What does this fold into?
Amino acid sequence: ASQFGMNEALEKLGIKTINEGTSTGLENFSSGEILESYSPVDGKLIASVKMSTPQDYEKVMQAATEAFKSFRLIPAPQRGEIVRQFGQKLRENKEALGKLVSYEMGKSLQEGYGEVQEMIDICDFAVGLSRQLHGLTMHSERPGHRMYEQYHSLGVVGIISAFNFPVAVWSWNTALAWISGDVCVWKPSEKTPLCGIACQNIIAQVIKENNLPEGISCLINGDYKIGELMTADTRIPLVSATGSTRMGKIVAQTVAGRLGKSLLELGGNNAIIVTPDADIKMTVIGAVFGAVGTAGQRCTSTRRLIIHESIYDKVKDALVAAYKQLRIGNPLDENNHVGPLIDTHAVEMYSASLKKVIDEGGNVLVEGGVLSGEGYESGCYVKPAIAEAKNSYAIVQHETFAPVLYLIKYSGDVDNAIEIQNGVGQGLSSAIMTNNLREAERFLSVVGSDCGIANVNIGTSGAEIGGAFGGEKETGGGRESGSDAWKIYMRRQTNTINYTTSLPLAQGIKFDL
Ligand code: UN1
It folds into this structure.
């Protein structure tokens, strides 16, 4: 149950009517134009943010590069202690921040809290990791030589994040970057700037309390133009970008042009394969949450269901019945299942996709549509839709960030379903619903799913932070969060030490003077 209202949440997070959009950690300023943040929940103006100018950006970069010089000297376990305190602050602010996420972005309150929980989880993970930034030792081929590798701090990490996970994606990057001794400059989505301000206000407390170099966490706000300054900036060795494949290609090319590193988390076109051996009840829950959760705006949202012909009608009927139960409305009201899309532009894309699937020959099973009237004043609420389609349709090949689910029938064995599942440009998340061991293992094998995430008897969304998160092909190949994703935030150095009085050369090469 809710402890306090939205105004108290905003106050607790330090959100003012007009906020300075640039921060060097402790100092907040901005000389750019005003960016207004309207809630998709009720269409009201929440607050404004002053955008960053190129001059503001320059100040930020100076603070960040300066902070890096001293931050990298703090031992990694002590940097872990900073991240532990950050996680603690997030626990204290979980309700307020979860509410803001729900109100500014439009996802359900439960999912808003869930997102803050992901932030807390990655902090805990990073704290432990701060004592485990292990390199290997190797046996040298030369006598009296020792060879090993170590991981050093990398520098300034640029973070470009999307509106759909307006706080968690930042923390997946920062928690690992900070224990690695890196400093961060963040450009949140211009659709969710207040979430950025709120996060920055939380970390600023930790910076202050620990007397840290303020530039370890910097914030800039604005559109793609300010982001372009980061991608082109040789002072930023790593740019981590989450968003559309279109955006990712531009970022990747610019960063590659200066031989920087990029970590890309781009579009998905995620499918669940439903085989004759699937548990139908679990399938329906997994598919419906995957398709309509976050109003279909997760990069892991379920977009396609690939169903065996023998159970096709059964699954279809169960889904149609489940969709009838869905309550669409204010996401802050926990009785509702589906909240709004982010803005009216997203609503237009949704409407266009429904028209397109019909034009291409699809058969609509659950009618979509834009809702109006009381409670829907923002114009951002839409009905989740289901259409029967072919995998080859252009619209099915394309990621539409909305609750539109395509049903695709397959026949024969699971290899046919896998071929359809892999038959798209993107490669983020995938799932199979089956109690058949052979099918499940086939799906997970080298000839199975080509995605970065492949689940058995789980939907496509809702990944835990402990695993590496990301995907192949047009998803961009990056991995964030758990496993050894930390390695991209550090630079690896191979060290060979000779403790003899002679200088033997590797590969047995003779060179006498
Ligand atoms: C995203 O949609 O950008 O797996 C990330 C999930 C979440 C993360 C999604 N843990 O649904």
Summary: The chain has a mean pLDDT of 97. The pocket of 2-aminohexanedioic acid is lined by residues 118, 164-165, 242, 298-300, 461-463 (CB under 6 Å). The longest helix spans residues 109-129. The radius of gyration is 24 Å.
